[in-house]
Amino acid sequence: MKKFMPIALLLTAGFVVPSLSSCGSADLTLFNWGEYISMDALHRFEKEYGVKVKLRTYDSNELMLNKLENSNYDVIIPSDYAVEEMAVKDLIQPIDWNLIDFDPKTEMVPALYDSLQELAKDHGTEKGFDMLKYSVPYTWGELGILYRTDKISREEIERDGWEALRNPTNADGSKRTAVMYDTARDLYSIALIANGKSIVNVSSEDIDLASNWLLEQKKAFGDNIAYKTEEILDDMPALKYDICFSFSGDAAYSIANAVDPKTGKHDASLLDFYIPEMVEGGDTRTNIYCDAMVISKNCQNVDLAHKFISFMSQYEAAYENTLEIGYTSPVKKVYEDVTSSNSEYEEGEGSFKEIGLAYNLIGGDYNVFYRYDEELKKTLEEKWIVVKNTRN
Questions:
Q1: Fewer beta carbons below 10 Å: N end or C end of the chain?
Q2: 308-329 tens-digit pLDDT
């Protein structure tokens, strides 16, 4: 999942800012996804504390983890399963909540808080992971289906659910074009969920079932299916594909930037986002994700790292961040204000009201986090290579 601002900025993936305020050594080094933070908020943090922040970026959790071996960072913003992997590998330290001016129990979006509490519970032989012990949520969302409304109706999407991703023909008889994120973890999450299987307790039979689901999809579409990563954030606003499985934040970006190819004008109504209901017999409605702020084990200034995390969790910075990067804030008051009828961001191109993701993000027992499992990770990657390289 690539992070994009829903406004035009002269930034690119892998962009490196040596220092936000001036040259020279920095007091804090932030390792973050590209184009995934309000620069104004960062400048205010520097000014308020009289410090310099060095921002370095990455475009995947795997790349971030590899870079940690040879570089020093203070605050990092990985995704949920990567937070667990970093904790298991002793790469991060616990958060001292006494230094964070944010109470997740009362100030976090309840849907996200409930899901994190569920994640921390033991389920049979599956041990829980207390994400709040090691991190403070930064953004969150869920996986669903992004689709062209001029090609596919809402009624069809609601009827077919995840199977709409395997239907090679549109209602008008035209061949449907599809694009899928080229990441084994996310592809198999969807394939497992579509088959009513858990994405936590996964058997070899479940993996084979998911592989067949993906293989049948590939064969059904033939040359009309593509597997991409960050290019999707260019392709979907340009309506290059009819349907795509998407992260809610990426869907928001695509909808906010959708352009009618006939007129060349912005038209958010040409794209819509839907999270299917849980399939019969299943235990998971969708894969919920949460990117979070963590402090590295070798952080050079732990006190300042906590100050930064606390600052970004406050209303002003979190609100500003949400408006600029377009991803859902974990801060309850920000979420409520941004999606309310009185929001200053209500009207106009790219507005949350226009995007209409208000938000399908319900959290709770039926939204499950993908868990870190090194063996499963390796198996899925190997299986996906076989599926991807199978000729139609």
A1: C
A2: 999 999 999 999 998 888 788 9
